[in-house]
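Task: sequence design from structure.
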């Protein structure tokens, strides 16, 4: 191969790699924007019992009893979120990811996914002083002692009723697998 051909090949390789990294950066930025926009919709809807997020009516089995829910019109993960039908204790919940691994230790892939969502959510609130965020695990939360559970807790830093959310990774013993879940507690009547 001639020197000229090698130089052209190297230049083309740089252009392709630069284009791919440029595409990856903007894809991440748009995905981050979508996540932040949906999270903002969800937490803001918490101030009005999530009425603006209520889609089609459905039910979910909780401890063997069918409970009324609405499919949410906004969600963070690949699946859907749900809004309960309570005026006193309105809540949004979404199962973001699950693992098939059983036992006391979550698989590395699920831990990475939890950390990824946690960092993305923190970035959404980075410039918003109206929200307080804190990481919780067995090192700083008595209730998580002796577990591999992890949480990111966020709440409005204001007086009076506030919206609160928890992104957490836990071992769902009933379903038999590890989960990442987002729960948002709204302001009730």
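Answer:
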């Amino acid at each position: 191969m001639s020197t000229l051909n090698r130089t052209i090949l190297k230049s083309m390789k740089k252009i392709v790699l630069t284009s791919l990294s440029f595409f990856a950066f903007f894809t991440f930025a748009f995905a981050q924007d979508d996540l932040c926009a949906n999270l903002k919709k969800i937490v803001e809807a918490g101030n009005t019992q999530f009425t603006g997020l209520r889609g089609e009516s459905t039910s979910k089995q909780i401890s063997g009893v069918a409970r009324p829910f609405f499919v949410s019109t906004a969600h963070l993960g690949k699946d859907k979120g749900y809004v309960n039908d309570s005026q006193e204790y309105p809540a949004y919940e979404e199962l973001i990811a699950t693992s098939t691994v059983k036992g006391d230790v979550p698989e590395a892939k699920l831990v990475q996914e939890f950390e990824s969502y946690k960092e993305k959510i923190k970035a959404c609130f980075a410039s918003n002083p109206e929200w307080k965020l804190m990481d919780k695990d067995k090192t700083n939360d008595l209730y998580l002692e002796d577990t591999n559970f992890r949480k990111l807790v966020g709440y409005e830093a204001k007086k009076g009723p506030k919206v609160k959310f928890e992104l957490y990774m836990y071992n769902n013993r009933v379903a038999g697998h590890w989960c990442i879940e987002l729960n948002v507690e709204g302001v009730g009547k």
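The radius of gyration is 21 Å.
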